[in-house]
Structure formats: structure tokens, C-alpha cells
Amino acid sequence: MTVNLSVNIPYKFDILFTNDIFADDNETLARAFAGSNRRALFFLDSGVAGACPDIVERIDRWCQRHAIQNVTAVQIVPGGEQIKNSLDILDRVGVLASEFGICRHSYIVIIGGGAVLDAVGFAAGTVHRGIRQIRVPTTVLSQDDSGVGVKNGLNRFGIKNYYGGYAPPVAVVNDILLLKTLDDRDWISGVSEAFKVAIIKDKPFLNFLIANAEKIPSRDIDAMEKIVHRSATLHVEHINVSGDPFETGSARPLDFGHWAAHKLEMMTNNELRHGEAVAIGIAIDMCCARELGLISNDDFDRVIKAMETAGMSLWNNALLERNTGGELIVIDGLELFREHLGGQLTLAMPDGLGKKMDINQLSISLVERAIAVLLERSGR
Fold first, then answer.
1. Quick check: is 104 in a domain?
2. How far apart are CA 78 and CA 154, in angstroms?
3. pLDDT greater than 90 at residue 341
4. Of the N and C termini of the chain, which has fewer Cβ atoms inside 10 Å?
5. pTM of the predicted protein model
């Protein structure tokens, strides 16, 4: 006897764009709270707290003005990948949720960069099997990519996002003014995700990035706002129409350049930030795509020169590290990438600029040659 079951669960959430989210008269975040239950826990990235000394006071004042019950003091948590390298955040969120009676109709508001959104979001997704979460991304990378998606995770056993899940937020609020608090590394490196999605999905956007590359290191806020908005839109459109938002297949179309990036982050003990590692990963895959005949020499030169003009470094000495058998350690990232989804290795590659195709193998010799090209280009 067989009972067939098909479950169709629609998810809907808004990406809201604003300026000065915690101004007393700004109602953008308040619109994310639905119904009568307006009880919330607020978690704040320590980097944001340091850059905005009055932000906790502003959050408290904003909550009072908009009738949001912040059940306890704003919780400041470590920023950067360090928060993902421990399981401590699970109990911290769980203890607070238990102590203050946070239920599945309450909210956890997460304010921070991509790592904080990942870690606190994972914990929120496990308490009571999922508490509503509102994301307030505060970095370029989280506003233009990771913060507008549905994934979360923690690093374990030297593998990025080994533990993780899918927990769509009820809303994401991008405040462009928060980007002004970033140091130059985070301002620049987050744009790598915009290059990534443009290379494989949107040639006009890629042309915009190339034409405006010099505005990125000069911290042109108007150019950055356009970049964030278009990149976020492309990422959300993919999640919405791909037919596989929870990645049950063997392909991750928006992870062009990421097989090497994730491995490099772990190899450098996160000294390389995610966006910096993605820039290098894109450069490796662009070298491979050129040799495979998927893009022209001119395509390659235009993109790589633009990324360099934008202030991105496309080299790290970890690329030269080898194991005892003499093999490049970064190549282990290919198998880890395959294992993460299972099935056959599937890598997104450009099919010309602005279009995507999948390949199912990448030879070690090809990767070796790509790294040699980048080494020569780096002048080291």
C-alpha cells in the first residue's frame, strides 16, 4: 500500500530599501511586523555597534515609538566568521528565547553582516523549529547577496556552512546608509558578488560594473546603491523562478567562483573575507572559462581589469599551498563543493558574458594553469 503525499508551501517576503532605518519617523521596519504579536529579540553585529556608538539607544527609542516590544536588551554578538566557527550562538539564542517566552509568532531581528545573519538565522530556525526572523543586512555583501536569500549556516570541521538550513525571513530591510560605516575592505569586497551574478546572468549590469569600477574604491554611494539594488534583485529573482530555492538538485547556479572561495576561506582561517575569496574564485573560473573557449580573451580582460580597478585583489599565497602528495590544496574545494549538494559535480560557468552554462568536470591541470596565470598577473 502506498500513500502519495505532495506538499506545496508558498513563501513570500519583501526586500525593503530605505535610508536611516532607526530614524524615529522611519516606518519601514515596522511594516515587517505582522499581526498583533510584536514581541522581538534584537541581535546586533559587534562591528556595527562599534561603528555606530548610539545605535542601541536608537533601536530602543525606535521600538518605543513604533510599539515593538523589545523583550530584553539588544544582544551584541561577534561579527565576522568567528561567530560561525562555534556552536555557542545556538544556546545563546535558545536560552534567551526560553527565558523571555519567544514563540513562533514572535520575531528575531538580526542586524549585521552576512556571518551574523547566517549564524543567528540558523539558531532562530532551530528554536521551536523556526521563529520568524527579520534581516537587516549591514554590509555590501549581505545587502547584495547573502542577506536577501533563504540560507543560513555554521562552519564545522573545517568546512564552510557544514551545518545549515533554509529559513526564509519574513522580510529583509536594506539601509544604504549603514554601508557608510564599513571599512574599505568590506566596502570593496562585497561587490565581488555583484560581478559574479552579472557575469552569468546580466550583461547590461556587468557593463555597468565595468564602466563604473573606478567609483567603487572612491566610495561613491550613488553607484553603490545602484549596484546593491540590481544585485539583490537578480539574486531574489533567481530564488523565485529557479524551481529549486532549497537546492535539492546538484547545481548551485549562483555559486560561480565559490568552489575555490569556500576552500580559501578555511585555508586562511578566515583571514580572507568571503567577498575577497569570491573575487579570487571568480578570477580562477574566468581563467578556466577562457581556456575552455566559453569566453573570449577580450571578455576575460574586460572583467578582470574591472575587478582590479574596483580594488579587488585577485591573488592570495594560499593558492600555492600543496599537500604531502604535491597537489594543490585548494583543489580539494571541488570535492567539498560536490559533496555539499551530492550527486554529480556541477559548476556554473559563463557561456559568453551574461549567460550561464553548467560543466561537470574541471581538470586539475586546468586549475593549475589558471593559478599560474593569476600568479604572473599579481607580479609576485
1. yes
2. 14
3. no
4. N
5. 0.90
